[in-house]
Design brief:
heterodimer, A: 368 residues, alpha/beta, Rossmann fold, 2 domains, 5-stranded parallel β-sheet, two-stranded antiparallel sheet, 13 helices, 32% helix, B: 152 residues, alpha+beta, OB fold (Dihydrolipoamide Acetyltransferase, E2P), 6-stranded antiparallel β-sheet, 24% helix
Chain lengths: 368, 152
């Protein structure tokens, strides 16, 4: 009996990009042969609703969990958190292929900010989020997953596995066993080898059959979604987002904590609340700007200064207000500019402190 | 125009020349009349911060109306990456194709061959002295920030 097992979930890219699909399939095929690893496929995390079978499956995983997705790890982590898939941040050694070689330190867990309100009910198990855009070679991911598997001692998974083998599988497990979905492109070992609970490499039944929906599956058909995700390791509950958004996206829970309450009220393409958040705690996973899509900002800038402000860039507040006005006008409402939901202090020059701070630090390095 | 000495703004040990024969905007570009238009380029202050320019890309076509703060391109240098924005409302008449294909003149001759584009505008502009005053004000703030004397 395998004492150590970790679960690897590959979240598939939306669309049919053959390069991405190929990487997903190669990884799935290779991981199926690993004795200590359960592997499953789910659709793109950003598009999963909380009651999608992929979400149900993810919530059913009890032990250490590795999630590979086409998202920044921070975005993936907080999407999962929102869907009730929680865990301590697992530190990965995986780095983007274009990261500087002169920085040997691994991507370290960002320390929660002092005033951040933090996530609730986080279990001890670890959650590793890997970005499939970082590298093109499956081997890099496989090596990292094996390393994670080695460093993990996974009693909770053992319990989970025992309950499965002992005849009391979690509902999601049973669901997958009885109704395994074929992956969208069946011509792969992943599809052929694990589509109906076939034995995996170690001779165990495969409790984690691929859960990707078949094409055209009506109840599982995913539409692209657009909504903010809150990074509670940064959020200070300052409520600027709820004041700024005029579309009723935000609300508070019974503990008076900010939350994304009506995500479908969000206006597709509009990231304005993310720009006004003083802690950069609001992520739009699908936005084209890395800092808004959940990139680690420290890494994102690399070693270069961003002089955009100096060369006349509008402030984040100005951009946010313009984006909000556009959506208001589209809804047949009046533009409000900078008159609503913007704390006065944000309109003063000190509101630029963070950007200027960074600039100054960088200037300092230039030894001027 | 007389060859009067340029104003000089000291960036630490570096002397940024600010010629008197042209106008300026707060976003660190110079503008000099060229026929009916304004030729636009980086000031010495900008170039000192950028250092060696590697790459310049314009995201709009020439002969396009533009609005102040509209993003029109990006620049990458040894020290910086930045988007570039229009300093005032108007129309971009043409880009300096030579610099677009090889940005070297931005470093070697920023007030001459390193010009970026020609702009039609009637917006108010700064004199060299005004611009140096802008730099003075900004640099003081910068110095205070560097020394950590700015209150949080």
């Amino acid at each position: 009996m395998a004492a150590k097992k970790i679960t690897v979930v590959i979240s598939q890219a939306p669309g049919r990009n053959p390069t991405k699909r190929h990487l997903e399939e190669e990884l799935a095929a290779a991981l199926l042969m690993e004795p200590d690893i359960d592997v499953s496929l789910v659709p793109h995390l950003n598009d999963l609703s909380a009651d999608h079978t992929g979400s149900l499956y993810l919530r059913g995983v009890a032990g250490h969990l590795v999630v590979l997705s086409w998202l920044f790890p921070r975005a993936a982590r907080w999407i999962l958190d929102r869907n009730g898939v929680k865990g301590q941040v697992g530190v990965t050694l995986l780095k983007p292929a274009d990261a500087g070689d002169d920085d040997p330190s691994p991507e370290e867990e960002e320390a929660p900010r002092p005033n951040a309100i933090g996530a609730l009910n986080v279990p001890k198990r670890k959650l590793y989020c890997l970005d499939l855009r970082d590298q093109s070679e499956p081997k890099v991911y496989l090596d990292e997953i094996r390393r994670i598997a080695r460093e993990s001692t996974v009693q909770t998974v053992e319990l989970d596995l025992m309950s499965w083998i002992g005849g009391s599988p979690a509902p999601a497990q049973m669901q997958r066993y009885l109704n395994p979905f074929l992956p969208t492109q069946p011509a792969t070992p992943a599809a052929n080898g694990n589509s109906n609970g076939h034995a995996t490499g170690n001779g165990q039944p495969a409790p984690a059959a691929p859960v990707a929906p078949p094409p055209g599956s009506a109840d599982e058909a995913l539409r692209r979604r657009w909504y903010p995700i809150i990074d509670y390791s940064r959020c200070t509950n300052c409520m600027e987002c709820i004041d700024f958004c005029l579309f009723g996206v935000y609300g508070v829970d019974t503990h008076e904590r900010i939350l994304v309450e009506q995500q479908d009220n969000c206006k597709k393409g509009c990231p304005a609340c993310s720009r006004v958040c003083p802690e950069n705690a609001i992520i739009f996973p699908e936005h084209k700007t890395p800092a808004i899509a959940g990139a680690d900002i420290a890494l994102e800038g690399g070693f270069k200064i961003d002089l955009s402000k100096l060369f006349g860039a509008p402030s984040a507040i100005e951009v946010a207000a313009a984006e909000r006005d556009q959506e208001l006008v589209n809804d047949g409402r009046d533009a409000v500019g900078l008159t609503v939901g913007i704390p006065k202090r944000r309109l003063q020059p000190t509101g630029e402190r963070d950007t200027l701070d960074d600039l100054i630090d960088d200037l300092d390095k230039l030894e001027m | 125009m007389s060859e009067s000495d340029p104003l000089v703004f000291m960036m630490g040990q570096f002397a940024a020349r600010i010629p008197l024969d042209r106008s300026y905007v707060e976003s660190h570009f110079w503008l000099r009349p060229e026929g009916p238009y304004w030729r636009v380029g980086f000031t010495a202050y900008s170039v000192r911060l950028l250092q060696d320019v590697y790459f310049l890309n314009w995201s709009i076509d020439a002969d396009t109306p533009v609005r102040k703060k509209q993003e029109i391109g990006e620049i990458e240098s040894s020290k910086a990456v930045s988007s570039l924005y229009v300093p005032c409302d108007g129309r971009i008449v043409r880009f300096n194709e030579r610099v677009a294909s090889d940005p070297t003149p931005i470093n070697t001759d920023n007030y001459g061959e390193g010009w970026l584009y020609e702009l039609e505008t009637s917006a108010p502009l700064l004199s060299a002295a005004d611009y140096v005053a802008v730099l003075d004000a900004g640099w003081d703030k910068t110095q205070r920030m560097i020394k950590g004397q700015m209150n949080e």
